[in-house]
Amino acid sequence: MPIPRYETSSKTEEGYEVVVLRDARRDARAEIVPANGNNLIRFEAGGRPAILAPPDLRSFRDDPQASFRYGTPILYPPNRVKNGELPFRGRTYRLPLNEPRNHLHGEISSRRWEVTAYGASEDEGAYVTSRFRYEDHPDMTAYFPHELDFAVTYRLLDGALHMETAIRNESETEAPFAFGLHPYFPIFPEDGEEIRLQVPAAAKEWPVTDEAFVTGTPGETEFSRSLRRGIDLREYPVSGCTMIELAEEEAACRIELKKRGYAIAYRTDRQFPFLLLFRPPWAGAFSLEPYTSVTDAFNLPYAWEMTGARGIGPKEQIRLTTSLWIEN
Questions:
Q1: Which GO terms label this protein's molecular function in UniProt (predicted)?
Q2: Which of 185, 207, 251, 316 has the most CB within a 10 Å radius?
């Protein structure tokens, strides 16, 4: 009997259940931890890693920052909310402070998600679907009283890993909507290696602080123009961050590792008009963070069409997709 191409399985690692997706023909593998924010902690193809895993899964228990420092944290809202105060439709939501003065990255990146479906077939690849509902967490609905329902499917198909997200507002009132992802791509260090980043940028860059807070309106810059041609990431500063707008075409970002002979490709759909570039000081990685809105969008004095500060209406559902693969 032939060995199936696709397989979905699970294992226990340091007290966490880890869901493993495999594509034998492409020698590709993904690992997800539903109990800690449904975090995609590993993806590789042909032995080449594309996602930075945590040093160990105990980190998620021991380090309160680890949930959004490794793997692919799921952010709602993305980045910082100044003083934890988020105004929307005449109401101010007071989010808990997990920094001295700010709310950072939301809480669904560290909470338990429930696996609702999984399987593997030639047509559907290897997949797992997990769900997070605000209404299951009374401490969260105390400050954000909306019944938001998140369903995320990771699907490994033909060597590429697709993330299919559906967010539905089950409550009777409109809720503020701001969603993002924070993948860490393991690319540093290799002495003397040229690392090229190409981004389908719209040549518009938002001026931001080192905490990614917006300080003005976007404009065309030499840096945003150069992203389309490609930049050398060795020259990008540690702890640096840049907020850009993406072009209308649905093209992929590419990180090309010249010495290692492959590239990491990452494509997002048009639900993500913004991309934050970030080089973390704590790991040899680089982040391309797709956002539906700029940082702290609801506190900015600009039109929502500019910032992405929008709502999700009663019974409305928003779908978002990303794809990640290795190019030789």
A1: carbohydrate binding; isomerase activity
A2: 185
**Residue at 43 is within a domain:** yes
Let me know if residue 238 belongs to a domain.
yes
CA-CA distance, 88 to 132, in Å (whole number)? 23
Residue 18 CB partners (closer than 8 Å, separation 6+):
10, 11, 12, 31, 32, 33, 41, 57
The whole-number pLDDT of residue 248 equals 83
Q: Report the CATH number at residue 287.
A: 2.70.98.10
Query: Is 178 exposed, middle or buried, given 0-12, 13-18 or 19+ CB atoms closer than 10 A?
Result: buried
Asked whether 294 and 243 are in contact (CB, 8 A), the reply is yes
Whether the model pTM is above 0.70: yes
Per-residue pLDDT, 64: 84
Radius of gyration (C-alpha) of the chain in whole angstroms = 19
Domains held by the chain: number = 1
Predicted confidence band at 189 (pLDDT cuts at 50, 70, 90)? low
DSSP 78-93: -SEEETTEEEETTEEE
- Digit-coded pLDDT (tens) for 130-176: 999 999 999 999 999 999 999 999 999 999 999 999 999 999 999 99
Q: What percent of the chain has pLDDT over 90?
A: 93
Report which of 16, 159, 28, 174 is spatially closest to residue 91, judged by C-alpha positions: 174
Domain of residue 98, residue span: 6-327
**Mean of pLDDT values over 76-82:** 98
**Position 262 in a domain:** yes
Q: Which residue in 161, 132, 133 sits closest to 147, CA to CA?
A: 133
